[in-house]
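[09:14] KT: can someone run the structure on this one? pasting the chain below
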Amino acid sequence: MNKSEKKLFQVSPSPQLHGGESIARIMWAVMLSLLPALAASIYFFGWRALHIEVVAVVSAILTEALIQRLRGKPITVTDGSAAIAGLLLAYNLPVGVPLWLPAVGAAFGIAVGKQAFGGLGHNIFNPALVGRIFVMHSWLPMMTSWSPPRTMLYAKVDALTYATPLGAAKEGIVALVPSSSGVFSAMDMFWGNIGGCIGETSALALLIGGLFLLYRGYIRWETPVAFIGTVALLTWLLPAKTGAIALAPYYHILGGGLMLGAIFMATDMVTTPITGAGMLIFGLGCGLITAIIRLYGGFPEGVAYSILIMNAFTPLIDKLVKPRVFGNKLALSGR
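[09:31] RB: done, structure tokens below
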């Protein structure tokens, strides 16, 4: 058998069938699904939101290219993964932050949360959330300086003490708590006409992007449904801490970063479980941690922390729910 004939018998590890997808194709489809939220961020917060998003994306791409070059690895920024991390980080920032902050956060997320582990496919934690937590704890006043959406009548006021719906409830500020007679209504929260991070306020825009990903088969329903459902159930059953104002479950669903996190970050293909059962466990864990932080913790939000904590448990979850090898019978059967 000559050398050319031997090559015909070299078989790569399974699976041998290819569905026609590629990393770049999937990543740019995810970028496309994020465009409705980008449009909503510009509509509600103005062109400043776009500036933050562009800076974060460019910083993430440049950081990844630089580190890959220093490591002597192929530069793969065209696959879109760095751009997604940068955009998701920007979605987790208030509109009033200085432009250097998304640049620093995106660079940190890519360098420490992704490239330090070896790059795409090797990172344990979601890079966008690593960057978000870094800037949150480094520049807390900037990260909690909320601006109202420009669509509100009083948004033209330059200096305004403002709170997000979840923040107002946590602090017991009755005048700003969502209610039929308060500043926020359920429809305001659904459309995005509330304060918050620039990419998380419009539940409608996030749902449009999420349905697109479900239709294309790039995400599955288990994690988002388990995540959102657990938060809804626990915030309905458990009382709020002393001094805080209890909110109806749907305000917890529509307020804060729950929709953004459940649809776009808790479904990350690299840092989350690969089986349906694992995805359910992951979503349940995220929902439990989020609800506890929101109801009893020091921060009004808990989505980012919950996803990062559950990222650390992903290998264990995958091990516990590992499917049987095809063709084998259970040991309990006695065969």
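[09:33] KT: thanks! Residues 153-161 have pLDDT under 50 and may be disordered.
[09:34] RB: yep, looked fine to me
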